[in-house]
């Protein structure tokens, strides 16, 4: 189980949503608060050189948790500024916020994971103008939280079934046309473990096959996992948020 961090960027893993009080505001108030919030967050993006922001909407919300985000900055100062700005009132009074910090993680054993290209950005795109936001229905995303169970690093890799597990996952990726895969390692840990995998497939069958392959013994007995299904949230809009070089 070699450890390999890629680059020095810091990624915010953000579980978010809106509290019920948000829906008690009238339309004009909500629109005004949203515009103030977007302007504030874009100023943080510009000042701290946001690398990328990717949103996902859960297929089924978990109480106030409705969306998941990965928000990447070049350093910790950018991540800290983003989290502080996000909870500022008035918009911040109406949100649910659960943050973890992570770094990208790609050991050689996962170098085969494909990366989906970002959507193209029109030259005149203005992120301050908020379009109607919707999910991308063309794919399904697995948010896989977890990690090794305590003591698993003391077990021989052959006994754990590491190689068989890798082969199973690669077979699923080929058979079900895996679109995108990336892994993050938390700076610390939480109740769901120290890793997050994001896997995107064109159909639900691919997501189901991936989950079953990860759970299969013997390797599955050495892992703890918690899965959530989601769809990408307004990718064509949020790709406009990072500042563009030369603008």
Question: Can you describe what's shown?
Answer:
There is one protein chain. The protein has 247 residues and is an alpha+beta fold. Helix 1 (27-47) packs antiparallel against helix 2 (76-86) and helix 4 runs antiparallel to helix 5 (204-215). It is built from six helices and eight strands, in the order βαββαββααββαβα. The protein has an eight-stranded antiparallel beta barrel with strand order 1-3-2-8-5-7-6-4.
The largest sheet, given as strand count, sense and whether it forms a barrel, is:
8 strands, antiparallel, barrel
Q: How far apart are the first and last residues' alpha carbons, in Å?
A: 43 Å
Helix/strand/pairing class, anyone?
Answer: alpha+beta
> What is the CATH architecture annotation of the largest domain?
2-Layer Sandwich
Number of helices: 6
State the helical fraction. Answer: 25-40%
CATH domain fold name of the largest domain: Alpha-Beta Plaits
Residue stretches low in confidence (pLDDT < 50, at least 5 long) are: 1-6
Beta strands, count: 8
The CATH class of the largest domain is identified as Alpha Beta
- CATH homologous superfamily classification of the largest domain: Apc35880, domain 1
Return the domain count.
2
The geometry reads as globular
How much of the residues is beta strand, in percent?
25-35%
The quaternary state of the protein chains shown equals single chain
Would you list the SSEs in sequence order as H and E?
Answer: EHEEHEEHHEEHEH
- Give the averaged pLDDT, no decimals: 94
């Amino acid at each position: 189980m070699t450890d390999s961090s890629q680059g020095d960027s810091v990624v915010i893993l953000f579980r978010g949503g809106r509290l019920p009080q948000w829906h008690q505001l009238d339309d004009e108030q909500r629109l005004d608060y949203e515009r103030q919030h977007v302007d504030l967050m874009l100023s943080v993006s510009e000042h701290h050189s946001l690398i990328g922001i990717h949103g996902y909407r859960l297929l089924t919300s978990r109480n106030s948790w409705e969306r998941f985000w990965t928000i990447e900055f070049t350093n910790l100062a950018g991540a800290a500024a983003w989290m502080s700005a996000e909870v500022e009132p008035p918009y911040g009074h109406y949100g649910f916020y659960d943050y973890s910090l992570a770094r990208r993680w790609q050991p050689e054993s996962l170098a085969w994971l494909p990366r989906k290209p970002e959507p193209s950005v029109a030259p005149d795109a203005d992120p301050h103008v908020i379009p109607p936001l919707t999910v991308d229905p063309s794919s399904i995303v697995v948010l896989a939280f977890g990690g090794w169970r305590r003591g698993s690093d003391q077990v021989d890799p052959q006994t754990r079934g590491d190689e068989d597990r890798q082969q199973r996952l690669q077979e699923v990726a080929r058979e079900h046309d895996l679109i995108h895969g990336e892994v993050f390692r938390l700076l610390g840990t939480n109740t769901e473990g120290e890793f997050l995998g994001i896997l995107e497939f064109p159909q639900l069958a691919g997501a189901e096959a991936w989950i079953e392959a990860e759970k299969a013994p013997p390797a599955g007995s050495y892992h703890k996992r918690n899965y959530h299904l989601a769809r990408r949230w307004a990718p064509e809009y949020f790709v406009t948020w990072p500042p563009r070089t030369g603008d």
